[in-house]
Amino acid sequence: MVLELQKPRPIWQIMFSSHHTDVGLLYLITSLAFLFLGGALALAIRAELFLPGAQIIGDAMTFNRIFTVHGTTLIFLFIIPFASAVGNYYVPIMVRYKDMAYPKLNAIAFWMIPPGGALIWLGFADFTWYATPPYSIISAPGPAADMWIFGLKILGISSVLGAINFIVTILKCKHPDMSIGQVPLLAWSFLSSSLIILVAIPTFAAALLMLLTDRLGVSGFFNPAMGGDPIAYAHLFWFTFHPEVYVLVIPAIGMMYEIIPRFSRKPIYSYNSGIFAFVLLSIVGFSSWAHHMYATGMSFTEKTVFMVGTLAAVPASAMHVFNFIATMWNGRIKFLTPMMWSVGGIALFFSAGAGGVANAAMPLDFTTHDTYWVVGHFHLFVMGTIAFGSIGFLYYMFPYVTGRMYNETMGKVHFVMSFIGTVLVFFTQHVLGLYGMPRRIFDYPPIPEWIAMNQIATVGAMIIGVSMAIFLINMIYSSAKGKLANTDDPFDLGGKYYYPFEAKNPSH
Amino acid sequence: MSGHSNWPEWIYIGVVIALMVWVGAEAWEAERLVEHVPADAETIIVTGQQWFWSFEHEDGTKEIGELHVEVGKAYKFEIISKDVNHAFNIHDYVVLMDAIPGRVNTVWFAPTEVGTHDIQCREYCGLIHYNMRGTLIVEDPST
Amino acid sequence: MSHDNSQTVYRTTPARTGKMMVIMLGICIAGGAIFFSMWDYWISEPAPVVAMMAGSDDHAAPAAQTGQTLTQDLSFIESSDFRTLAFNALPGEPDNNPTVNMNVGDKVIFNLINDGKSFHSFGVTKDAEGFGGIIPGSEVASASNPLKPGESGSSEFVAGEEGTYYYICTVPGHRDQGMVGEIIIGPAQGGVSPGVAAAPTGVSHDFTLDFVESADFRTLAFNALPGEDGHNPDVKVNSGDEVTITANNLGKSFHSFGVVSNPEDFNNVIMDSAIAAATNPLKPGEGGSVTFTAGAPGTYYYICTVPGHALQGMQGSFIIE
Lengths: 508, 143, 321
Hints:
The complex is a heterotrimer of chains A (508), B (143) and C (321).
Chain A: H1 11-15, H2 20-48, H3 60-94, H4 103-111, H5 113-123, H6 135-139, H7 144-172, H8 185-216, H9 230-264, H10 271-284, H11 300-328, H12 337-360, H13 362-368, H14 372-402, H15 408-434, H16 448-481
Helix pairs in contact in A: 2-3, 2-4, 2-16, 3-5, 3-7, 3-9, 3-14, 4-7, 5-7, 7-8, 8-9, 8-10, 9-11, 9-12, 9-14, 10-11, 11-12, 12-14, 12-15, 14-15, 15-16
Chain B: H1 7-34, E1 42-49, E2 52-56, E3 62-64, E4 66-70, E5 75-81, E6 86-90, E7 95-99, E8 105-109, E9 115-121, E10 134-139
Parallel strand pairs in B: 1-5, 4-10
Antiparallel strand pairs in B: 1-2, 2-3, 5-8, 6-7, 6-9, 9-10
Chain C: H1 14-37, H2 48-54, E1 69-78, E2 85-87, E3 100-103, E4 107-114, E5 122-125, E6 152-158, E7 163-169, E8 180-186, E9 204-208, E10 211-213, E11 220-222, E12 235-237, E13 242-248, E14 257-260, E15 287-293, E16 298-304, E17 315-320
């Protein structure tokens, strides 16, 4: 799996290559760079909110720009490219094909990420990652706003191209001896998320274009002064972005499906349930978008429909949790770094989902909407589940990609600190939201409970920051000077569960 | 593929579904009650704009930044916005409704105790969103 | 695929990876430099639709100055609870929201400073309420890119018609909280007829005003040097007359021409009377001409619009009756 080359290659050869492992590596490096950039912004936000009044950020405009770019970066420039990295690296191997279906298109899809990211970072818009009109039309200053719109357009196209590639590779290019029911669950997760992307992203592409023409004054889709309706944007946006959150989570769960059976040295409890849950989640995920819009003045019937749609997706996610726990039950678990991250990720996934049920219930949402409860809730998903699953998988991939082992102690320290930090920040924010602190605020009144909880959250964030520094050092140092790994079984799990492309039955 | 019995999984899914049905039913009932505006509720027009709240009572009295209401009466807020999206929120009474330009949103409440409470904006609206605050003052009924 | 791990397998060398990381870091630093050096630019422009929504401004075109220049210093101040805002002093104290009295044709220069802790911006409007309808040229900063505490700026406003205008803080809501003052504009001063240009009379005049210089370049003039005949001739026409001016550069330096209200204000050429410009002047030996209609009655000046030349003598009276 590690590229077998006798001579080290020049960097430009890797950069301009279209081989899936090279493109995967490019996605990986880019997404990790943006992880750290976006994470630095998060630390700035938390440092500012440590106390009421201006701490390190002088004015509200700068703060608004920082949290906008923080959210945009971590979703579009870390989570999605990281998933693409893993998919590019592994999907062709899992379906036993030589490369992705369209290698050059693959490389083009990657190379759209840096310009998109550059546009977003250079402009640093201030209208939150939702870009809700009318604010984003009549009040958000340019050219930052327009650059954001163009940047996201480019990133959306990149996602769609990647999705097409995955779908064709998995469905059409898989080895003739392999039936679709034998394709590993990680590949199934990419199939599901790619199908969601194909349906959901074009809606947002349309919404972005409409937003741009509204800003130019050419159209009045969302601008009440020109006859439009801001709620139309909310529908278009959430129609894409509720399924999009499943696009974000499904690959991470797929990654856990690789790690948990192997490190439990037991086959997955129910491969069929895994497939069923992925497909069900993809479909049902489209029926719940307006639960983000309960407070916009929808009728009782509309709210009920979307509440039912939201609750209907819970059993599908619950099936994954059951699958993981049942797999680990009675297994000979080896708690190495990747396993710790995955198990921690499941625990936080469960907590995130439980909190989400409170949001789904219509009347409870009026307490929690647009407060720090929501911030805590979704961060438990994106940080607690997706980032944990991704980082765990990164540790797992490390010996295969670099041929060397990372430092296991530093990896475990990274996990423990991150887990403690994540709990400190995001569980606290649930309570903070119940006390009424709104989102997206630069400063807050000196209410003692708010101050105390903000301080706890900031301490947690700093712990995560330190752990990420340890992580960075580990990754860089180990890839250059780490101990050489046994690429057949780097984690010493016992021969039966190493990468199954040698095995006859890839799911066991 | 799965040579083992999977009755635990079926029971687990059954429990999850039952839980979701229960949450949904309770929420449906609670929301139905919450949305029923009493017929005698007094209307207050709430105007949100960047970056302050203003109020107009039925008798024409206007207030900026502060709202005086009386204990024991029901009030229906008709919420409008003059520029961008805002959200009118009295957290202590779980009053929350967006102010969207071009439409009127309605929410009601009935204060039960004398006191002061914070009014805040709960939808990002720009530079001073963080300080788009007001005060709700609940007083004894004047005779 | 590989089963043989006895030899190390490379993707690339650590040295090359290190070089790549340095390059990436360099790109980030370059991007950061661009970003921070233009920090305010990225958020400086409102969306084009905003200008469209501000809609039909019948007072959109600023008037030309024909009268005096006044100065009004204003500072944004706030009460300690931020509920009351004002210019210069809080309500009840002297100099709160001072009223500006001026006449049609006068210009007032506003010097603004933000003495508060919040953000403010400035503009003059005719609207009796709200923060729109701002007369172009009178803005200092804007609501989406305002003056931070301690920052200052200036703008100007020329009264084109009688009536009451308002100077306000253009941050939405601040006018309602008290940051508004009146500008009361009375009729134009001087002149038997009001400060309005007459209809075209059909009468044409031709004048030649050539740029001349003294040998030591210290003295500049039109047509002839001081003491000689024809030096800086007075030009008199009636309002509404058609005036053609031909100007030739008889000197060795660069010059350009224009009629202005204030001989020291070489940037504001009025009545479309410019020949060339300081940024694209007439070279030695070059000439040009302009034809325009004489505007409202008053005393104006024709000058060389290259900065400093009017002060060195290249100015004369242009009187419209």
